Amino acid sequence: MKAKEIQELIDFISNSGLAEVKIETDEFKLSIKKNSEVPAAKNVENHYSQAAPAPSPEPAPKKDAPESNENSGPPLLEVKSPMIGTFYRSPNPDSDFFVNIGDTIQKGQTVCIIEAMKLFNEVESEISGKIVKVLVDDASPVEYDQPLFLVEAQN
């Protein structure tokens, strides 16, 4: 089974109501679980050895209610993961994070990297604004459409 076929299968399962799929042939065994609580094994050294990240579909941030209605400021928007993978805040261990809390970001600016099947995909912001909160720890597994950042929208 080729990497593209596996990714298509993962996308299909993500969009279906299935929680788990197991496929077994003479050549391989494949088990995919949706929303598993088991953390993915990570090899940070391997993550940073790749040169250029592959292009990825742009995330679709959606307007959501703020986590708390204590402040009457502008609504907070979410930058969400466009795929299942491992979230990285910097391009390599020696570099600064792409964005930090309080940073102003522009539409199209790279905010993180998602590693999926040994491919490193830059995630670009669909909105301009100020980073209010980082919702995911560096080198953590993320799910499709999982919120990564809360952004205070800029008019």
How many distinct helices? Answer: 2
- The count of β-strands is 11
What strand line-up does the widest sheet have?
Answer: 3-4-11-9-6
Class derived from helix and strand content: mainly beta
Order of helices and strands: HEEHEEEEEEEEE
Percentage of residues in strands: 25-35%
Termini Cα gap: 47 Å
| Helix content class | 10-25%
* Poorly predicted runs: 36-57, 59-69
Q: Name the overall outline.
A: elongated
Radius of gyration: 17 Å
Q: What is the typical, i.e. mean, pLDDT?
A: 77
How many strands, what sense, and barrel or not for the largest sheet? 5 strands, antiparallel
Secondary-structure blueprint of this entry?
Blueprint: H1 3-15, E1 20-24, E2 29-33, H2 44-47, E3 62-63, E4 76-80, E5 85-88, E6 104-105, E7 110-116, E8 119-124, E9 129-134, E10 140-142, E11 147-153
Antiparallel strand pairs: 1-2, 3-4, 4-11, 5-7, 5-10, 6-9, 7-8, 9-11
Could you explain how this protein is built, in words?
This protein is mainly beta. It has helices at 3-15, 44-47; strands spanning 20-24, 29-33, 62-63, 76-80, 85-88, 104-105, 110-116, 119-124, 129-134, 140-142, 147-153. The chain contains two helices and eleven strands. A five-stranded antiparallel β-sheet has the order 3-4-11-9-6, with no helix packed on it. The protein starts with a helix and ends with a strand. Residues 36-57 and 59-69 have low confidence and may be disordered. A hairpin with a 4-residue loop joins strand 1 and strand 2. 11% of the residues lie in helices and 34% in strands. The longest helix has 13 residues, at 3-15. The chain is elongated, with a radius of gyration of 17 Å.
